[in-house]
Amino acid sequence: MNKSPFSHNPLKFVYFIAIFFLISCSDKSPIPPDDNPSLSSNSMLDINNDGELNILIIGSNKSINSNIAPFLSDKVANELNKILAQDNSHNLEVSVAFENIYKSKVIAYGLGQSGNTYNENHYTHSLLQYYYWPENQEQRFKYLSNNNTRKWDYVIISADPYIIAKLPGYYALGVNKIVKKVTEGSAKPLLLMQWPKDEGLTASINHFLEYTYRTADGSAIETIPAGLSWKKLPSSKKDKATEHPTPNGAYLAAAAIYTHILDKNASTSNYEYDNSIADIVLKTKNEEKNKEHYSGNPTFISPFMNCDINDNILNYNHTGTSSENGILNGLKWVINKSSRSLEKNGTPPINFNYGRANTNFEPNKRYDIDPTKFDFSFGFPMQDNGNHGNTSMLYGLDKRYNETNNSTDLGTALYMVRKSELPSARAIPIRTLYAQLKEAIPSQSAYSDNWHMHGNLDKATGAYMYTMLTGDCVLGSEPTDKNSNEWKQWMSQKIGHETAYRLMFFKGIKSNCK
Hints:
five-stranded parallel β-sheet, alpha/beta, 15% strand, 13 strands, Rossmann fold, 40% helix, 2 domains
């Protein structure tokens, strides 16, 4: 009888089987990730590869205008959490958090050169004030940039609808700051296109469309077109509610976020709400992804719109306060670098006048709206006294005391809107310029003494006005020594140019700035 070649040595048999198994396995290709839905979805959702899906939604539950309904993004966060938690296409632990940017705090500030001290509530409604709000700022930066215990995969940016409607450039400036901070970490920022609750009180949905896309493109992030999905809903699906968004609107916005991230229908989740809404969201995403949503330069008239003056001689007027003279020195310093010149007065109407904006202090020294004399009138919120100003001005970007007070940057701008001073009026956001100066140069004070503004803040203001007036900048090359006064002056000028350009055109400073 023939014997097996392994009959005398069982180990040879085991060795043969092992070799056969390895050879047969080597002929097979690995299973593609797409054959395992959980693996595929995990890789799309878990950007930082920590085994969790963490999404942060930033928004405000209180508008700067008390008559306007805020866009309550916490409702969107709740719906998104339900969609993702019941989605079997991934096996990640889900957390969707909401960060309310609205805050208030009683802050001491000094008014006027005498420095009389007052204690008033200060508020944050804008993304920019949220970014620069001094209290817990370091922790906030860590929270946004993933330098914290929780690591975000996505950060969804929402905002106050009234600021988007009336001051879209300031919205864009805030978005850009948040995006830069988020991208310092590993998370992906996305911009949520909202829609108005009442188009008559704020702006049309087409306004939200254009200026959300301009803002996103200017900051190189993607737009989630939730507002367009809402626009395409049949009237029977546009439910009514006191709060904004409505229940259907909150689900729609959440579905839009889900669909944008995973590129599929939110109805594939086991969370059942309304499949027809989810279908419209997916259709909208596919229809809008390659469309152009605006063209040319912005045409919306706001206190931050460009003046587009081409004159070689810029004629000016002011009431002669020490603050205005300081700003004049900064403006002259900038214009001396250009091919233009600056002259006082002239044949009316001259190019512009400028002055304080505060109605609660020396109103005779305010900017002057008179189109027969001036094409444009620039108003700035008077600086706080130096006794508290280096802190109080950082809290004073948005709102102090109440929404009619015009001693803050947005208080000045929205006063111009309320009083129908457009298209003549232009706002100079002195506190916004100072906040950025302080960020770039931590030792920088707003003051040269206890009252007058620092020369670097005047230079930033001058650069801002020059770009706002002409659309141009004259920056020059960056000095190499970042500890030198020359570099600090250059940075001050850069901040002025860049702030004006972002407010006017929703994007960074143009590349041919010399």
